[in-house]
């Protein structure tokens, strides 16, 4: 019988650890970690995610400062806000919610965030550090996936991992983290020829393709572990709205472990955002080095 790995429960444990570190920072350094969340436009899904991040920050004692800008904001105005947040010593983390409206270049915006405040880990300096295994702030969803795998395995060395999806926010960074742990990593995507056969070779499948139910039961070797990053809003045959992952959850009985959607990777992403914010505050105080691996 497949084990359902409850990310929401592990996220609660991480939140507890983050809360303890914040108490230390407050008592020993009079430091109050703060996260600036920038939301441009009215995308309803983005508004929901930002709301979740704010509530989670409040639970652990992180001050969250929300900046809501209209959908027609000029790139230069957003850049000016980022410059002000970079310069503000009371702000430890900056998150610009993606996607951005089309008149704004997300590459330029992400590149303008100070790498030391880049709690998403999307700045090219942090991408470079990740690719050379020299620390930096690591993207939240990939970090959450690795913590989930650490619940299953003592050591990932020598495992065969297949990543499905090649995005900058999940597929590429999670592949680098798996490689750093000495997995043999194959990065694939929806255009990969023979994808089911490749997936069947995997001990670990991480799927972040944004295609509901892409990974079928017969893509998964018996005993494999499936980390499902997909969050897809679908309408059932009976008209009910549901959130489903990129794997067919009801075809995974022969797998060793699968992460549920919702309640799997999503809550881990938020817990890792909180943990990155505390790490940014610790870095600002000189308590940890940006080059440290944790
Ligand atoms: N700069 C930036 N950083 C991000 O990290 C970022 C972003 N932009 N844009 C959008 C995506 C999406 N994302 C999610 C976070 C948590 C859940 C989450 O907690 N999901 C719950 C609820 C799912 C639901 O019902 O909607 C779950 O999976 O259990 C989902 C999605 C962060 N993102």
Automatic annotation (TrEMBL):
A GO term, aspect molecular function? methylenetetrahydrofolate dehydrogenase (NADP+) activity
Q: Which keywords has UniProt assigned to this entry?
A: Amino-acid biosynthesis, Histidine biosynthesis, Hydrolase, Methionine biosynthesis, Multifunctional enzyme, NADP, One-carbon metabolism, Oxidoreductase, Purine biosynthesis
- Report if keyword Amino-acid biosynthesis is assigned: yes
Q: Which SUPFAM superfamilies match?
A: Aminoacid dehydrogenase-like, N-terminal domain (SSF53223), NAD(P)-binding Rossmann-fold domains (SSF51735)
Q: Which residues bind NADP(+)?
A: 165-167, 190, 231
Give start and end of each Tetrahydrofolate dehydrogenase/cyclohydrolase catalytic domain. 5-120
Q: In which pathway does it act?
A: One-carbon metabolism; tetrahydrofolate interconversion
Q: Where is the Tetrahydrofolate dehydrogenase/cyclohydrolase NAD(P)-binding domain?
A: 139-283
Which reaction is this enzyme known to catalyze?
(6R)-5,10-methylene-5,6,7,8-tetrahydrofolate + NADP(+) = (6R)-5,10-methenyltetrahydrofolate + NADPH; (6R)-5,10-methenyltetrahydrofolate + H2O = (6R)-10-formyltetrahydrofolate + H(+)
Q: What is its EC number?
A: 1.5.1.5, 3.5.4.9
Domain of life, per UniProt, equals Bacteria
Output the PROSITE patterns linked to this UniProt entry: THF_DHG_CYH_1, THF_DHG_CYH_2
Keyword Hydrolase attributed: yes
As for what it does, the entry says: Catalyzes the oxidation of 5,10-methylenetetrahydrofolate to 5,10-methenyltetrahydrofolate and then the hydrolysis of 5,10-methenyltetrahydrofolate to 10-formyltetrahydrofolate.
Q: Which HAMAP family match?
A: THF_DHG_CYH
Q: Which family does it belong to?
A: Belongs to the tetrahydrofolate dehydrogenase/cyclohydrolase family.
The record describes its quaternary structure and partners as:
Homodimer.
Q: What is this protein called?
A: Bifunctional protein FolD
Source organism per entry reads Novosphingobium ovatum
């Amino acid at each position: 019988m497949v084990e359902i790995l409850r990310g929401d429960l592990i996220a609660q444990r991480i939140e507890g650890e983050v809360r303890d570190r914040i108490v230390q920072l407050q008592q020993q350094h009079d430091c109050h970690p703060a996260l600036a969340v920038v939301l441009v436009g009215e995308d309803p899904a983005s508004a929901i995610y930002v709301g979740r991040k704010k509530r989670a920050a409040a639970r652990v004692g992180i001050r969250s400062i929300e900046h809501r800008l209209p959908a027609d904001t000029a790139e230069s105005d957003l850049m000016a806000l980022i410059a002000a947040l970079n310069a503000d010593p009371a702000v430890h983390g900056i998150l610009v919610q993606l996607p951005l409206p089309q008149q704004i270049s997300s590459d330029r915006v992400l590149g303008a965030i100070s790498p030391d405040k880049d709690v998403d880990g999307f700045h090219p300096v942090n991408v470079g550090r990740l690719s050379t295994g020299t620390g930096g702030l690591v993207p939240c969803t990939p970090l959450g996936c690795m913590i989930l795998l650490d619940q299953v395995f003592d050591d990932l060395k020598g495992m065969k991992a297949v990543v499905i999806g090649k995005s900058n926010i999940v597929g590429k960074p999670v592949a680098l983290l798996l490689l750093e742990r000495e997995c043999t990593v194959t990065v694939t995507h929806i255009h990969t020829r023979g994808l089911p056969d490749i997936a069947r070779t995997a001990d670990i499948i991480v799927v972040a393709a944004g295609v509901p139910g892409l990974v079928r039961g017969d893509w998964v070797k018996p005993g494999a572990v499936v980390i499902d990053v997909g969050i897809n809003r679908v309408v059932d045959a009976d008209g009910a709205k549901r959130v489903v992952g990129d794997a067919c959850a009801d075809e995974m009985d022969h797998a060793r472990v699968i992460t549920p959607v919702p309640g799997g990777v999503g809550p881990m992403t938020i817990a890792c955002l909180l943990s990155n914010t505390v790490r940014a505050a610790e870095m600002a105080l000189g308590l940890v080095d940006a080059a440290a691996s944790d």
